[in-house]
Design brief:
238 residues, six-stranded mixed sheet, AAA+_ATPase, binds adenosine-5'-diphosphate, alpha/beta, four-stranded antiparallel sheet, 10 strands
């Protein structure tokens, strides 16, 4: 079964200045192992689309299925279980400035449910392995202020990936980065798919990111999927 399915999903925010819906009758299927891009102008509904997947925004109509769960039918406990399958990276990720890189990532593990959490002894190796994975094995003892923007973004990725989520949601993960550091972040996202088996959904305004990274992409316009692209990827990994 697809990992994400939206069927006739609509959302209008109450009290919004703009009377138009943020999502307007969206049908969308995303398959396991895809890297899926979401593009569109500011206000097109991209963030709302991501937020309905984790149950943070409740649609007015339609059906949202994520990893086999009917999101609209979930209670508090079900939503908590859903969210452990989803890793999230936002633009301007917030790291705890008084904690080391290693502690920032370890905290994400400690917040995961007791039943799935690695034992205390296994947490440190899991954190170090994930820092290696994002290319920051040498930075574990540093504090966020000592890192570059691209490195901080990769700490955010390590934090999102350390519990091995089936689905990774990224909102403009490269928006404040230069070309080199953007490539570093994209490489991590591609490896998350290839080596950790995550499905990745990435909001971006950068068509080069879509071309380099995504398998398919949707163009949103005023809350509707205007076009669905299959990307002929120009593989930056070579
Ligand atoms: P995008 O991520 O593409 O910029 P959003 O999903 O953030 O689009 O927003 C879609 C529309 O919904 C916009 O008109 C925005 O102003 C509106 N909107 C988003 N979030 C809220 C909210 N919490 N309350 C009211 N309106 C909102
Ligand atoms: P972006 O478009 O970069 O995703 P936005 O600036 O549109 O971010 O939105 C940032 C946050 O503010 C989101 O959580 C969104 O839901 C919320 N938001 C956006 N538009 C509105 C609005 N008109 N009223 C209230 N909250 C909003």
């Amino acid at each position: 079964a697809p990992i994400v399915e939206l069927a006739a999903v609509s959302k209008r925010y109450r009290g919004a200045d703009d009377p138009r819906p943020a999502l307007d009758d969206v049908d969308l299927t995303i398959h396991r192992g895809e890297i899926f891009g979401v593009i569109g102008e500011s206000g097109a509904g991209k963030s709302t689309l991501l937020q309905v997947l984790s149950g943070l925004v409740v649609p007015d109509a339609g059906r949202v299925t994520v990893a086999g769960r009917d999101v609209g039918a979930l209670g508090r406990r079900g939503l908590r279980e859903l969210r452990r399958d989803i890793g999230v990276v936002f633009q301007g990720i917030h790291l705890l400035s008084s904690r080391t890189v290693r502690d920032n990532v370890r905290l994400a593990l400690q917040l995961s449910p007791r039943s799935e959490r690695p034992s205390r002894a296994a947490q440190a190796p899991a954190v170090d392995e994930m820092l290696e994975f994002v290319g920051l094995g040498h930075r574990g003892g540093h504090y966020p202020a000592q890192l570059s923007g691209g490195e901080r973004q990769r700490v955010g990725l390590a934090r999102a990936l350390v519990a091995r989520p089936a689905l990774l949601l990224c909102d403009e993960p490269t928006s404040s980065l230069d070309t080199t550091t953007t490539a570093d972040v994209l490489r991590v996202l591609a490896r998350a798919r290839d080596e950790l088996g995550s499905t990745v959904i990435v909001i971006t305004h950068d068509l080069d990111v879509v071309k380099a990274l995504c398998d398919r992409a949707a163009l949103l316009e005023r809350g509707a999927v205007r076009e669905l692209f299959t990307v002929a990827r120009s593989d930056y990994r070579s």
